[in-house]
Design goal:
There is one protein chain. The chain has 166 residues and is α+β, with helices and mostly antiparallel strands. It has a single domain, classed as Aminopeptidase. The protein is built from 3 helices and 8 strands; from the N terminus they run ββαβββαβαββ. Strands 1-2-3-4-5-6-8-7 form an 8-stranded mixed β-sheet, sandwiched between helices. Strand 3 and strand 4 form a beta hairpin. The longest helix has 27 residues. It is globular and about 40 Å long.
Length: 166
């Protein structure tokens, strides 16, 4: 595993630094746990080819993570999960992380970055568009609920596929 670190006064971005599943899960579980459940989320983390996390020295912990995989045949980097701890959202951390990943991907000759997001996730869509993603496809019923919908009334099964050409 290699380490890449870039810094902004209080933030540092790290790539494949040997993060523990617990570090990554502490950020992603509150955001995605109701959909994936603890065990499925741990498997997604363990199976990720690329793990990026942001460490915030102001709060002395990791506050954002991105899990990515390669689509080698197309040289596309697929963003499986991306999240910023809710207590630190709105500070530009997500933008900082996505731009760091984008720069790294360009340097390695990836052609694009791609992801899927719920159509009602306005904040995420705004962030992705801010860094250059655009909506490529509308996918009805893309996310299939593993538990009862009434547990999370904000859950939307329809998705946008978004892409950023590098």
């Amino acid at each position: 595993m290699s380490t890449i670190s870039s810094s902004s006064s209080l933030l540092s971005v790290h790539y494949n630094r040997g993060f523990t599943i617990e570090h990554v899960q502490s950020i992603l579980q509150p955001l995605f746990g109701s959909y994936y459940g603890k065990n499925r989320l741990r498997k997604i983390i363990a199976d990720s080819e690329h793990i990026w996390c942001v460490y915030d020295r102001q709060v002395n912990r990791y506050v954002a993570c991105a899990l990515l995989s390669d689509r080698e045949e197309e040289r596309i980097l697929y963003v499986k999960l991306f999240g910023v701890d809710q207590s630190t959202q709105g500070r530009g951390i997500g933008t900082y992380l996505l731009k760091s990943i984008q720069k790294w991907a360009k340097e390695r000759d990836y052609t694009a970055m791609m992801l899927h997001t719920q159509i009602n996730n306005v904040a995420a869509i705004g962030l992705y568009e801010k860094v250059g993603f655009h909506k490529e496809l509308y996918l009805p019923n893309f996310f299939r609920r593993r538990s009862l919908l009434w547990l999370d009334p904000t859950f939307q099964t329809d998705a946008f596929q978004m892409i950023l050409y590098l």
